[in-house]
Amino acid sequence: MKHEIDIAQPEYLVEDWPGKYEVFSWLEYVVTVPNPIFIVTTRKANGAPNANLHSWGLLIGEKGNYSSLLALLDHSHTYANILREEEWCICFPSFEHYPQCFETIYCNAPDNDEITEAGFTIEPAKTVRAPRIAECPANLECRLEWHRPLYDGSTWHLFAGRVLHLAMDEAVMMPDPVERMQAMGLMYNVRGVVNPLNGELYGPNTLGLLSKVEKIFTDDGKPKGWRIQPQG
Ligand SMILES: Cc1cc2nc3c(=O)[nH]c(=O)nc-3n(C[C@H](O)[C@H](O)[C@H](O)COP(=O)(O)O)c2cc1C
């Protein structure tokens, strides 16, 4: 049975940290559709490396404009850094490095080297001044094209940047997509689940891992279980 759920935030919802349902829509904790995790790296005003653990973003674009779309909180260092420098790198960490990923949040001072302090290694980029993270097997270097608030008065701000360069570790460049996903160890931001019917919270956020890939196409290019037969 499908429930028809009113999108208005219910009175019985209790925040487990103050401001949670101001910064995030309560619906995010109900639909629980996960986003891939990556780290946005930028340069601080003093030139030190900045790292922002990120999941509200995507990669999109056609010929000549493969692009990175980011949703950033407007009080983050990364927001200010991109407005000033107009550049960033997208670094995809593997699951084995999730402790260092979270360290980037705990060593989030105004002038420090967040990459080194979090336990990662700085790697110079080829086309931008923003640093890359050596341990991340895939890195994209990006230049700002446009930005705007998600809505008027929103604390969320959208940035679109053109990908200028890609660096990828040959250790994850195997042709088999299943093996490649296993080698890359990509993570997903999985939200703590809220019951929309009574507001009950079933535990904290966690991580997902893209470790199961199904090959759904047969040798003649049709999805397995294809029901529509060719005519004639
Ligand atoms: C799993 C996870 C995903 C996150 N995704 C984002 C995001 O997409 N955008 C954002 O602004 N902050 C996001 N954050 C919060 C930032 O990582 C955090 O506020 C960080 O300290 C900001 O760094 P900065 O001030 O150096 O930019 C996320 C945090 C976690 C734990």
Please characterize this protein's 3D structure:
It is a single chain. This protein is an alpha+beta fold and 232 residues long. The chain has one domain: Pnp Oxidase, Chain A (Roll), CATH 2.30.110. 16% of the residues lie in helices and 31% in strands. The protein is built from 6 helices and 14 strands. Strands 3-2-6-9-10-5-4 form a 7-stranded antiparallel β-sheet. Strand 7 and strand 8 form a beta hairpin. The longest helix has 9 residues, at 77-85. It is globular, with a radius of gyration of 20 Å. The chain starts with 19 loop residues before the first helix and ends in a 23-residue tail after the last strand. The model has no long low-confidence stretch (mean pLDDT 95). It binds flavin mononucleotide. Residues 37, 50, 52-57, 71-73, 76-78, 105, 108, 189 line the site of flavin mononucleotide.
Short description:
With 232 residues, this protein is an alpha+beta fold. It has helices at 20-23, 28-31, 77-85, 98-106, 114-117, 177-184, and strands spanning 35-36, 38-43, 49-54, 57-60, 67-73, 87-92, 122-123, 132-133, 138-149, 156-168, 187-190, 193-194, 201-202, 206-209.
Give a quick set of tags describing it.
232 residues; Pnp Oxidase, Chain A; seven-stranded antiparallel beta sheet; three-stranded antiparallel beta sheet; binds flavin mononucleotide
